[in-house]
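#data-curation
PF: Archiving a pair of folding outputs for the training set. Convention for this channel: one message per protein, sequence first, structure tokens after, nothing in between. First:
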Amino acid sequence: ILPGCSELIRQTSTGLVLGRLEEWDNKTVECYLGIPYAAPPLNSLRFHPPQPHPGWNETFNATTFEPMCIQEFAAPGQDFGQEDCLRVNIYVPYNSISDGTTRLLPVMVFIHGGAFVIGSGNYKAHILAELGQVIVITMNYRLGVFGFLSTGDSAALGNFGLLDQRFAISWVKASINSFGGNPNSITVFGESAGAASVMLQYLSPLNTGLFQRAISEGGAAIATWTIQPEDPAFFAKKLARFLHCPTNGSHILVDCLQVKKPAELMYGVSRLKEFNFTFLPTVDGLFLPDSPRKLSKNASLVGRFSYLMGANRNEGSFLWLQIKTVRSQADFVNVLKPFISVAEEKFSLLSEAMLWQYRNWNDLNYSSYHIQRQALEAVGDVGFIAPLVATAEFIVDARRDVYVYHFTRRPIASITPEWMGAGHGDELVFVFGVSLLGGPLQGDEEHILSQQIMSYWTNFAKSGNPNFPNKVPVIWPKYNKRSQQYLQLDINLSSKNVRKKLKAEHVAFWNQYLPVLQTTGD
């Protein structure tokens, strides 16, 4: 800990915490890492909503990241993380609360992505906090089977990961004043599954007054990949059978799963992959009383506050390993099938329409080169762009402000092929200012774009308007259904980056034509 650590003891709703200082570019940020925000979800608390932490008597050492929530790693047979993982990390501009007269800072709470099965809140957010003069909080929440197992009844309603997120935001609201943060100016933002989570928090009737603004990067709650399309109780029973647990009652099933070791549960989850099943959020009747699409049409819910949202040029890149195996029209259709909710007997009709919509008419032989790129674009459109536009229009219908962006700059250090452009999640290095740390992301253009994006994001957190109070290079117009204006985020921002009708033809195909086709013959 650097000199001045005695000043880094802060009071939270659960006890005192000791932080450390992070220095960069002659600037300093206070970091409080790995703070528990709820009781460890162990033993009888597994598969139940989060409970308050009993607190601690000694000062909690919050100077290092804590382990992520237990999850399945990409390497075969390698699981990592731990169940005692419900932690937050807090980044505060240094000396922002050195005296009692300083005004309270806006608060930004980040929800990480990872398809609800992987990921962690262990992001370095000190640059965003300092340059934006905001307090940034990141969090862990339960993932996979630990976060989303559901028996469809009171034994295990599911959505524990979403309830963790909500509990973390509530903890922040109760504690942030002593860090110099304004509990009545909280913006929740997230990426991918975290972006969808933000929208689910936005739509939940339980969250009235919990936060004031929302930002979603590359994820929408109404996308089909967000909500479990099948009966979760059916797969809870399958999991139980794999692990030799009784299935003749939900409560005894959950009791049995609660005493299994994490490795045993992860083994059972690996068996469920034979059925292409993933534990996801569900309509539980409480946190989510209805489907996200139906809730999005409820003006009293979506009209509560302003929203900033967007997507990247090639969101389909997250499926690239699968897409690059596409060789035929049948492969193309199979890649898209999980993103479309339709009866099996109508799928062939929809398949023909999709092939027609995305056909490369300059390549009538359907070369794998072109069909893979068509699949990549189609996945991005159906999974991200079309749900984004539909959600923006629901918010406009509720007479609230919404700002839409399309991010097109591929960062130098992106892991996606260069021809692909900005892939899924590529905006994160600019939002958190990673490019300002030097290393592989050198270059004045990227530094400038990162600063501009952080200005837009933190302006929105301060005022609900990305153009105010700090100066921005281009005025970002509100989205409306007539002109459908959005801001293309790339280097050399100018008025030319204000565009209209994001991917209008493909969006109309998914949001207007396909729903009509689905009802043909009903």
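PF: Second:
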Amino acid sequence: SFEIFQIPIPASEDHLTKWIETRLRSFQTDPASFLSVYEDAVKLTREEQARLLNDPNIHNFVLSESGSWAAIASVAVINDETRGWASMVAQDTDKQGFLLLYIWVHPDYRRNGLASRVLDAATHW
């Protein structure tokens, strides 16, 4: 069974460590899926990584097997009207808008609907 949780802001040291591990693993596993590259991300200091994770406008969600923090899927969405993106997404609806920054599922778990589950949680939190 799986569980989905939002990484709190500010993130704990443990959450930060696991998030960095997952982020770097995703860049190595699927480099063509991201604008960032592993070689740049691995050079960031822990403080720089913490600033990314603790941005109050970016919401990070993780799907893991119950009882484990090992990320099987992760997603980040932004809802920041100061940047103009969210309002553009939702301009013709009464729904709140989000911009998907990334979504990643570990290759061993793909084709099981997990991306949809974590994305659904992220956009309904």
